[in-house]
Amino acid sequence: MKIATYNVNGVNGRLPVLLRWLNETAPDVVCLQELKAPQEKFPEQAIQDAGYHAIWHGQKSWNGVAILARNAPPEEVCRVLPGDPEDIHSRYIEANVNGIRIGCLYLPNGNPAPGPKFDYKLGWFKRLQTHAKELLAQDTPVVLTGDYNVMPTEQDVYKPERWVDDALFRPETRAAFKDLMAQGWTDAIRKLYPDETIYTFWDYFRNAYGRNAGLRIDHFLLSPNLEKRLLAAGVDRHVRGWEKTSDHAPVWIELMEG
Question: What are the structural domains of the chain?
């Protein structure tokens, strides 16, 4: 079973890229972030024509998350991260797919830091930790994937010294990610590639992709009962080099059937 995550940076503007990638790689399940489209503007028909059922939570101009599945429709569990009824951002959606609970998330960027946006990021992280702990307690196989907007270690960022004051790399952010991991989650990419330089995002500026000046901010966290089913993982880096593409590349894992 192949599961992928992809921050598309605008699902309608990047639709040709998304469809080309789906056709090329045919993952069983896809989590999308940054749809940047209101609920009614999601390209459902084009996704269906590509062979996928979809559930999504849109928002005009910003955010937005979706889960696509190839065979049966995803069974939606929730479309908001619990813990803050005032939070109206479309940043989380969760579904059961083929016996696995999949949480698709788009964690806040948090810049400028310090400030209200950074406080919101850390608050969102706390809610994620609470929810993740509850998911682990259910003993269901769980994948928490998406754009975490965190570089966990210096290994995950080109020239880390330039990022020390950035919300994606500040000590508080990395500590929050570490606390989440300490619940018992496995970082799929690092499990298989502990020492390699792997990035998932390259800025549009200063030829970042050409220079491989990237960040690893899109992550797959697996519950303990899924870790032993992990067969492969990778980044479809070449997609970042396509015309009119997102600044993120798709990330994927392959799991043994349970």
Answer: 2-255 (3.60.10.10)
Ligand-binding annotation for 134, yes or no, is: no
d(CA 163, CA 178): 18
User: Coil, helix or strand for 140?
Assistant: coil
State pLDDT tens for residues 169-227. 999 999 999 999 999 999 999 999 999 999 999 999 999 999 999 999 999 999 999 99
**Residues marked as catalytic:** 106, 147, 248
Task: Determine whether the annotation assigns residue 34 to a binding site.
Answer: yes
- pLDDT (average), residues 12-26: 98
Q: Which residues of 226-242 are buried (b: 16+ CB within 10 A; e: fewer)?
A: beebbeebbbbbebbee
Helix, strand, or coil (residue 248) = strand
Quote the pTM value: 0.98
147 is in an annotated binding site: yes
